[in-house]
Write a structure and sequence with these properties.
By secondary structure, the protein is mainly α. The chain has one domain. It is built from six helices and no strands. Helix 2 packs parallel to helix 4.
């Protein structure tokens, strides 16, 4: 009984929180220590031409459309993605280079922002599932204590104890992976930053400081 009480107190006392201390947050379903930031704002990373003044859409450009998902994918190492940008910049006519590379930036922002939002939705689902499991563990533990105090509850108590063992293992396994899954939005944001800044460098629009 002591083993169960201690394990449940340690694992679910803080619900789905990671092992390290985290700042207070208003949304209990957000499982990460990182502050919740729902959007990637292009203006925060892009110092190039004003996108609203461009003509056309990136998905209609025969060179840009197939390149955007390729560059956005983490399957392509960042250094190779930067080389792809260099190759595109070198192949574009000088008169079209600024407009079309800016279209590339818009496509990368749109694609990576959508991917990041999908990742954040998955993190919320992760947090909700962990909170639900924590509640179930507490409820089942309370029931187990009742059964152990009952003269005829031994059989049900044994079955419930096995269920709790699996629940606690799943909870701990998830909790151990929370730092990895919570890093994904930041990884996407850093990829966008690296790609956009490389386009800026190709255009000579990067700001100093």
């Amino acid at each position: 009984m002591v083993r169960w009480t201690l394990a449940i107190t340690l694992l679910v006392g803080g619900l789905a929180a990671p092992a390290t201390a985290q700042p207070a947050k208003s949304d209990p379903d957000w499982p990460c220590t990182q502050l919740y930031n729902p959007d990637l704002v292009l203006a925060h990373v892009w110092n190039g031409p004003e996108p609203s003044k461009l003509g056309g859409h990136w998905a209609a450009d025969p060179a840009i459309a197939p390149l955007v998902p390729k560059l956005a994918s983490t399957a392509l190492p960042v250094d190779k993605a930067l080389a792809e940008i260099d190759a595109l910049a070198a192949a574009l006519p000088a008169a079209e280079r600024e407009r079309r590379l800016t279209l590339l930036v818009l496509g990368l922002h749109e694609t990576l922002d959508a991917e990041r939002k999908k990742t954040i939705e998955g993190l919320y689902k992760f947090g909700r599932n962990q909170r639900t499991l924590a509640r179930q563990i507490r409820e089942r533990n309370d029931r187990l204590l009742q059964l152990r105090a009952s003269a005829d509850g031994a059989a049900e108590a044994k079955e419930l104890e096995e269920t709790l063992e699996w629940d606690l293992k799943i909870f701990q396994d998830r909790r151990s992976s929370v730092n990895i899954v919570c890093a994904q939005p930041d990884i996407i944001e850093k990829r966008l930053f690296a790609l956009v800044k490389h386009v800026e460098a190709a255009l000579g629009t990067a700001k100093g400081g």
